[in-house]
Amino acid sequence: MPAMSRCRVCQHALLEFFDFERQPLSSAFVAPDGTDDEFFFRLAVGMCESCALVQLIESVPPELAHHEGYPYHSAGSSVMTKHFEETARRFIETELTGPDPFVVEIGANDGVLLHTCGEAGIRHLAVEPSGAGTVRVHRAFFDAASAAAILATDGPADVVYSANTICSVPDLRPVFEGLDVLLASDGVFVFEDPYLGEILERTAFDQIYDEHVFFFTVRAVQALAERFGFVLADVERLPVHGGQIRYTVARAGRRTPTPAVAELLAEERELGLTDMATLEAFGRKIQGIRTELVALLHRLRAEGHTIAAYGATAKSSTIANYCGIGPDLVPYVCDTTPAKHGRLTPGSHIPVRPAAVFADPYPDYALLFAWNHAEEIMAKERAFREAGGRWILYVPHVHVV
């Protein structure tokens, strides 16, 4: 597969700063007899020398990553369900106050936010190629054509929202062309995605995988919005998924940017967030975590301890494959998603078992792949700690709790 040596947005050169080497599709859990047909690519990241947008050097076709059987559902997490319900109520109180408001969600997954809006009598629509639960769905990728079709039947959108989706769209031009068609004159485009600043601060390198093409900063999103005739009107830090930012984008001249935008831009400059020296130092930390984690797992196994993993997440594909963690070190991973049970993790081929197996019997140690849900999981699995079990975490560094 040819490398993307140019920025996907402004076409300037990309400066590569880390290579995770050969990686599979992070959500392509395979049947035990299907390991010969896996798709692999080079997972490497670089920064645009002009607009400072950090992105994958190579990307995979989106239809390979997002499909009918896409295994993540936000309703499976009580934390994320609450997050989307609260976001919906906030929109209802602020942006969706007109006589007949209309909200559109790009990549709605199973539709928690839109369902909440619907219960409040708000017209809503999901633009979602892989289905969205029980909400009304326009089955397509969001672009000018799908936006025009929606406009013809539903009128302009007061809010276009997206969570954990925009960062996965390799070509953002069609998205902004669609916004220009569909967004009401005073409407807003609100999206939230992993924040590069949090990834670097936590050394949360497993946030880098095939489905995350872009790693946004306020500087890069501001430049992105302006390139397509919009303005970055607001930013807000979010604690979910290991640290995200919610960006609010409006048509140029319709909203005055809040002080939060300037504040975060100044913070990014002070931290040198998009300096190559900062990014290269991040790479050295990644290498250190790999060395420490693999050594710890080998030592525990040599001492006769039992080890399992918890959470067969998409991001666990990066750490398992980059660190060479397979069933020899971690014999199985427990997960609550039925569609993953009986299958193997991508590339690393660790068997996925139901969460109930975790207690039958408890392992001595559990490698927490789903570290971004640590509080929720540890509360749910309190009996594991009470039985003497220990959690292994690797964000922001390798440690045992």
Task: Please give the structural blueprint.
Elements: E1 14-24, E2 40-48, E3 54-56, H1 62-65, H2 78-94, E4 102-106, H3 112-119, E5 123-127, E6 137-138, H4 144-154, E7 157-163, H5 173-182, E8 183-194, H6 196-202, E9 214-215, H7 218-227, E10 230-238, E11 244-251, H8 259-271, H9 276-302, E12 307-310, H10 316-323, E13 333-335, E14 352-354, E15 365-368, H11 374-380, H12 382-386, E16 390-393, E17 399-400
Parallel strand pairs: 4-5, 4-7, 5-6, 7-8, 12-13, 12-15, 13-14, 15-16
Antiparallel strand pairs: 1-2, 2-3, 3-9, 8-11, 10-11, 16-17
Helix pairs in contact: 2-3, 4-5
Question: Can you walk through the features of this model?
Answer:
This is SAM-dependent methyltransferase. This protein has helices spanning about 60-65, 80-95, 110-120, 145-155, 175-180, 195-200, 220-225, 260-270, 275-300, 315-325, 375-380, 380-385, and strands spanning about 15-25, 40-50, 55, 100-105, 125, 135-140, 155-165, 185-195, 215, 230-240, 245-250, 305-310, 335, 350-355, 365-370, 390-395, 400. It is α/β, with parallel strands linked by helices and about 400 residues long. The chain is globular, with a radius of gyration of 21 Å. It has two domains: about 65-255, Rossmann fold (3-Layer(aba) Sandwich), CATH 3.40.50.150; about 280-400, Rossmann fold (3-Layer(aba) Sandwich). β10 and β11 form a beta hairpin. The model is unreliable at about 65-70 (pLDDT under 50).
